[in-house]
From TrEMBL:
Localization, UniProt: Nucleus
GO BP terms, alphabetized: DNA-templated transcription
Name recorded for this polypeptide: Zn(2)-C6 fungal-type domain-containing protein
Domain Zn(2)-C6 fungal-type: 42-75
Keywords: DNA-binding, Metal-binding, Nucleus, Transcription, Transcription regulation
Length: 660
């Protein structure tokens, strides 16, 4: 057998085997991809031994490897196979991403959050052929199954990150992937998107809305330390937050005498948006800003909204904004610290007014207000705000000392504690009188004079506790403190009547200050009625309350403003202080209901003849029937029961008992 020439054999082999085709695999795009090498059919074992491989259509093992019982029979993947597999995987991932993007977009739309920008991969997807194979059914997001709790897609905890001092609820989030509330911050408005709110729907005119917005921005916002409205135009406010817009216009309409009809519409819209948001996962700063200003001014909603806002703000970690503002010195953290301060102040206000426990109990939440004032971002308004934070801390300690009113006399040993808090209040007014700004561009000299007004209210709150559980005669060791309480109450009314800055600020101050003014007036009336000339003469009380009524009548304010609602009750108080026939009138009404008189006069007739003897929402009979000195309910009613349609109407219904 002759040897073949190597070059000849090579030429024959090259002539018998066609050269590999260089095929350009193209996608739906116009850009070519890399050329693909020949398709590999032989297994790695046969190629290694350079023998022919007989491979069935079913794939490995080949016939030889099967006969030899070799387990490593496999066909190497060529570039074509790799590209095909990667293309299929990429298309499946893009499809999954598009499904998740659509789901998130729908959820944000339901929650009222701004729209997401389009995906960066959407441009590439448009170039793909619409006939691309769909993903498996198991990978499709089932949007219809939304009955269960929402889940959190946050990264898994690693052993290094899983520290023990986490809150216990974090363990539940880790195990169930249930989503906690997040604080997304203030969303950005979409200039191209049409505004859809109660103004665009025509419930109130745009001109009225613009006017009310200016009333709040240019006048009222200064009373809440310029926190309530950070926007310069109504359009910005409407695009940023619908609920903040409704709250702003409601408060402005409450103070504007020309907006009595608009007030009901704005108030209803605020209630609707608040109810809608109760169970939604929303937590931006404007949302808490809206709840804060509503709690600050709207006495009929303050208790409910304050508690809800505090819980939601704590879930969004706003209660830790003090330390974040000091550490990061960012405007966002500083804004959150201001909002939390207002929520804290409102919480303490309501705890005082209603004689109920406050929600915020931790001392450390507000103890570093000095650090806030040392931040470069602090302003003069922050000085005013932190002065109130410190004052509320003192009043909180006073409330903790005396506890709830159980009708029992306080111990004599509390006199030393009263002296201690008296000194704290003196130190507070001395310090902040020097530090607070003398004037404000929108509210005049109220910053310093308002601090003095708060000082008198705090003194009245402190000293009035000595009247708890007292009989007709005050013990001698409490006489000085009782006299100081009367002096403080009288000073409260005098400063409102004589100081021009404070007298005009009645239309603008929060509901807490008006409620405490009502308490001061009722306190003087009860003291003069119960103790006569020993503490405060009746003619003095009558003079001060009458002058206060005249001043309230001279003010320009809305129909539903608290000062306006107080006028009728104060007039009844003056009538009871001047007329000795009122008590005789009530006694006659009582005798008419004695046994034997039922057939001649029923309860309804008695009520129509003597309405003053029944306690209604205006509290007509409080000075006659109740001479206790509890702070709440003021005028014998709970402000949370009031609504737009029910102000100044009697809540008592007396059925006719004839024939019973």
């Amino acid at each position: 057998m002759s040897k073949r020439n190597g070059s000849t054999a090579t030429q024959e082999y090259e002539g018998s085997v066609p050269p590999p085709k260089r095929v350009a695999i193209t996608s739906n795009s116009e850009h070519p991809v890399a050329h693909i090498s020949r398709h590999i059919r032989a297994c790695t074992t046969c190629r290694k031994h350079k023998i022919k491989c007989f491979m069935d259509d079913a794939g490995p093992p080949c016939r030889r490897c099967k006969e030899k019982k070799l387990s490593n029979c496999a066909v190497s993947k060529n570039l074509q196979t790799i590209i095909d597999e990667k293309t299929e995987l990429s298309e499946a991932m893009l499809s999954d991403l598009d499904q998740m993007y659509t789901a998130v977009k729908e959820m944000r739309s339901i929650m009222g959050l701004p729209e997401l920008p389009p995906l960066q991969t959407s441009r590439m997807n448009k170039r793909k052929d619409s006939s691309a194979p769909p993903p498996q059914e198991s990978t499709i997001l089932q949007l219809e199954d939304n009955d269960g709790p929402s889940c959190d897609n946050s990264p898994k905890l690693t052993p290094e990150d899983d520290r023990l001092p986490h809150a216990p609820i974090h363990s539940l989030y880790t195990l169930t992937r249930m989503r906690a509330l997040r604080s997304p911050g203030s969303g950005n408005e979409n200039p191209s998107q049409a505004i859809n709110d109660f103004i665009s729907q025509g419930q109130i005119s745009l001109a009225d809305a613009e006017r009310l917005f200016c009333v709040y921005r240019d006048r009222l916002d200064g009373f809440i330390y310029s926190i309530g409205c950070p926007y310069k135009t109504l359009e910005q406010l409407r695009r940023k937050s619908s609920i903040l817009c409704a709250a702003t216009l409601t408060i402005a309409a409450l103070h504007d005498p020309a907006a009595d009809k608009v007030y009901g519409i704005c108030n209803s819209e605020l209630r609707r948006l608040t109810e809608k948001s109760m169970l939604q996962r929303q937590g931006d700063r404007d949302y808490f800003r809206a709840l804060s200003i509503a709690s600050y001014w709207l006495s009929d909603l303050s208790w409910t909204l304050s508690g809800h806002a505090i819980r939601r703000a704590a879930e969004c970690n706003i209660h830790n904004s003090y330390s974040l503002a000091i550490k990061d010195q960012s405007e966002e953290a500083m804004d959150s610290a201001r909002i939390w301060s207002i929520l804290y102040i409102c919480d303490q206000h309501l705890a005082i007014l209603y004689d109920r426990p406050a929600i915020i109990q931790d001392d450390w939440l507000t103890q570093d207000w000095e650090g806030i004032l040392n931040c470069p971002l602090a302003t003069d308004q922050d000085e005013r705000l932190m002065s109130q934070v410190e004052l509320m801390g003192i009043l909180r300690n006073i409330r903790r000392l005396f506890g709830p009113d159980k009708g029992e006399e306080i111990p004599r040993l509390y006199l030393s504690q009263i002296g201690h808090y008296h000194r704290q209040l003196d130190q507070w007014i001395t310090k902040w009188t020097d530090r607070l700004p003398e004037g404000h561009p929108n509210i005049g000299a109220f910053p310093r004079k308002g601090a003095l007004f708060h000082f008198h209210l705090a003194q009245l709150y402190l000293y009035s506790h000595v009247f708890r559980g007292q009989s007709n005669q005050i013990p001698s060791h409490f006489l000085d403190t009782a006299s100081m309480a009367v002096t403080s109450a009288s000073a409260i009314i005098d400063i409102l009547l004589t100081d021009p800055d404070l007298s005009t600020s009645i239309v603008g101050i929060p509901s807490y200050l008006l409620s405490m003014t009502a308490f001061a007036a009722m306190f003087l009336a009860k003291v003069s009625h119960k103790y006569g000339d020993n503490l405060f003469r009746r003619d003095q009380a009558l003079d001060q309350i009458t002058r206060l009524i005249s001043h309230f009548r001279s003010l320009s304010m809305g129909k539903w403003h608290l000062a306006n609602l107080m006028i009728r009750g104060l007039e009844t108080v003056t009538s009871l202080l001047t007329s000795h026939g009122v008590q005789y009138k009530v006694q006659n009404a009582i005798s008419s209901m004695m046994p034997g008189n039922e057939a001649t006069q029923g309860l309804e007739d008695v009520y129509n003849t003597n309405p003053d003897m029944f306690t209604g929402i205006d509290g007509n009979t409080i000075p006659t029937w109740d001479t206790t000195f509890g702070l709440s309910p003021i005028f014998g009613f709970d402000p949370s029961f009031l609504d737009v349609d029910g102000y100044m109407q009697s809540m008592a219904i007396f059925p006719n008992t004839e024939g019973s």
